[in-house]
Amino acid sequence: MLRFKKTTQTVPTAVTRDGKTHTVNRSVSKLIPVAPRNWDVLGLQAAAGIVLALTLVAIVWSTVSIGELLKGGTGYAAAALFDAAWITCIILEVLARYDRDKRKSARRMGAGLVVLTSGAIFWHGLEADSIPLAVVGALVSIVAKVLWVAVLKHIDRDLDAEDAAWLEAETSKATLTVARAQVQRQVARAEASVLGELLAIEHQHRATADALGMSREEFQELRVRALGAVEPAPLTAVAAVGKPTDSTDQTESTDHTEISIARAHAGTDGQNTGTSNPQVTTGAVPALALVKSVPLTLGKSPQDLGKPQPAPAATAPARVAPAASGLARTAAATAVPVGTIAEAVRQAVALGITDTEAIAAKVRDLMPTEPNRYSVRREITRQRPAIEAARASQDHIAGTGQYL
Could you tell me the CA-to-CA distances from 374 to 249, 275, 381 in Å, in that order? Predict the structure, then answer.
């Protein structure tokens, strides 16, 4: 039979008096249909309430019995462990009502814990020289457990094989998302720690260079001379990310190496090439893993780096000519290639070339391999005083010739 419930609601209503209208609240009574009582749910709630009350009685009884068996005091706290254990298994059964395997495991574990609890109560009855106390007292916890099994039979929801597999796949996907987020957070924390260490080392190097009144490049060169092999340069790996990398950025090979960022070659696991801002796509290694060893020469010869070298044979000093003659150009074109950028710059100046662009072009002609243009510029800047002196000498000779 359909039942209704009478309720009173407030409804805004327009009321007009003397030609003026205002909105006022008016109480209106309505009949709302009421859903019929679910006697199944009510019966299950009543049964669960009764079993819960009996479980509390069983907890008190077992705690007192086992506590006396353990000589009271802290023994009562230890006695509460027995009932708390199998009641926890009941809660796990409710949570696993859609998973048959997990529910079965929790039920078996709870049954074993109830047997241990009943055994302890039975032992207490034997210690009291009372067989009825031992037998009936042990059955209290067993009866409570059996009643819970009967109630949980109405709560369990068994799924067929296909539905259970689908639910397991959905659960696995959600678990994978959570696990990936946790791993990515750990990776980000590790990368931040590594970056902090690198920046701290670079700050220490810069502070030392400032204290010595040297530039960062001069301090790096000093470390090469002092140590014989340079340690990884922290800022090279940090600052090079996002900067353009020249395709010819390869210096002369020596036995010194430096850690720096270099763009990966084509087809290197998702790392972009040919752009001015290297990125890492999904599935590739992080940016800090792009560190690899590249040669370090600083554009210097082994003699410039402070290594002991055999004394070269005495040669006549090079004479500075006002301009390179055709014979000089021919000789330069057929000259033996030099080994370092510094030697190539000195040879170009000795040929009477003092213009920066001309010196750089001549160095490329003299080197057996294509040099790094940044290293060439740096070496020209370092030898600028000698170049200016050669240019002044050329101007003086040219002026003397005009005067004569």
Answer: 8, 19, 11
Both tokens assigned to 326: 């055709």
Half-sphere exposure of 15 (CA within 13 A, CB side): 8
Copy the structure tokens of residue 82: 């027995």
Rounded CA-CA distance 396/388 in Å is: 12
Exposed, middle or buried, 41 (CB in 10 Å: 0-12/13-18/19+)?
exposed
pLDDT in tens, 202-225: 888 888 888 887 787 888 888 787
Structure tokens given for 306: 């402070």
Long-range contacts of 141-147 (CB under 8 A, 24+ apart): 141/58, 141/61, 141/62, 141/83, 141/86, 141/114, 141/117, 142/114, 142/118, 143/54, 143/58, 144/51, 144/54, 144/55, 144/57, 144/58, 145/86, 145/110, 145/111, 145/114, 147/50, 147/51, 147/54
What are the tokens at 167? 């639910």
pTM over 0.70: no
- For residue 283, pLDDT over 70 is answered with no
Strand partners, 8: 29
Structure token pair of residue 198: 């690198």
